[in-house]
Amino acid sequence: MAYWAAFFLVLIVGFAIELFLGRRWWRLVWVTVVATLIFGGVIAADYYWRTLDQEVWSGSITGWEHKEEWDEWIPGKEDCETDSHGRKSCTKDRGHWEHHEAKNKIQTSDNGWMTVDESLDGKVDFNDRFPNSTADLAKYFPLGMPSASTHIYTNKVKGSYSLFKHTELDPKDYPDLPSYPGYVRDLIKVDRIVGAVPNKDRALDILAAWNTKLNKEIPDPDHPGKTRSWKQVNLIFVNVGTDKPREYGYALQDRWQNGNKNDLIVSFSPALDGTMKWVYAFSWSEVDILKLEVQDYLSEMGFGKDFAPIVDHVAQMVADKFERKQFAEFSYLQIEPSNTSTIIIWVLELMLLAFYGYKAIRSYMRGRGRSSYDRSFEY
After folding, report:
1. What is the DSSP letter of 118?
2. Which of left, alpha, beta for 86 (phi over 0: left; psi -120 to 50: alpha)?
3. What is the pLDDT of residues 144-173, one digit of tens each?
């Protein structure tokens, strides 16, 4: 609790300063307010950044909106001024036409409305000439097409993840581990197969469709009249590289902090002969047997010549058995401020105390000087 000591030091020393140097208690109140703002601000910022996390939502295209370009007549206006002699002078701006460009928007179930300026493949630019209707726009963004988007949430597990790490290894010893697939390309796509796999383009399409299905909206039994995501899970496959040791799977789990709350991550390393050297699945799931069954299935199938059927089968297993762990269960976790934040608190509080002490002593000495001058004048 070293950070509390810095706060109370300001209050105690401030009280002593006023008790012995002037008893101007309003100054102590002012310093207390500033010290509280410093303390609370640093703690809040530390908590925010240490628990700030990003997750990927899956959805589909649900609507479109096309608005044709149009010209608006802006009428002129007259501005008049009157000088000190009562003379009035006026100037008048001429009216003019203002052009408004065409607007095209799509709606997704995961991210709402967004403006689009081109087709997904980037081959067709959208401008005033094309498209000319909602029907034209819909041809480039078919209804039900899988979509994905990133969203921010508070992850208390991230702030205290040391409780769940593999203490026997350090992810820094595995510098070639891949990054988490959170990059949104082509406005609505996230590639959740990391690394090379056979027939990857087809496998990505199948996986995107499955992730959309796994996150479809269904009636919420706990909140009548509302909906929720069906399985609340995104399936991710990660090829960490050929012929890597199993520790790479554990290191990936630690680097990705067990994945986000709605992820099931299947990491693996293929052997040179096309078999799987190992498979390791991890997620915040209540059903551990599912992860074991996925590992057994991929180990039996091997790398193969086409990864698309493997994606399809594993996704069906997830649909049948996955049950996400509710993050509300981790509300008990206490996030202690980092060492960096503690140092910042001490530095700022001590600077405030030094400034306060300087001003108080200076005021006291000036008062003493005026008092001595007044007495000498009386003599």
Report:
1. B
2. left
3. 999 999 999 988 888 776 666 888 888 889
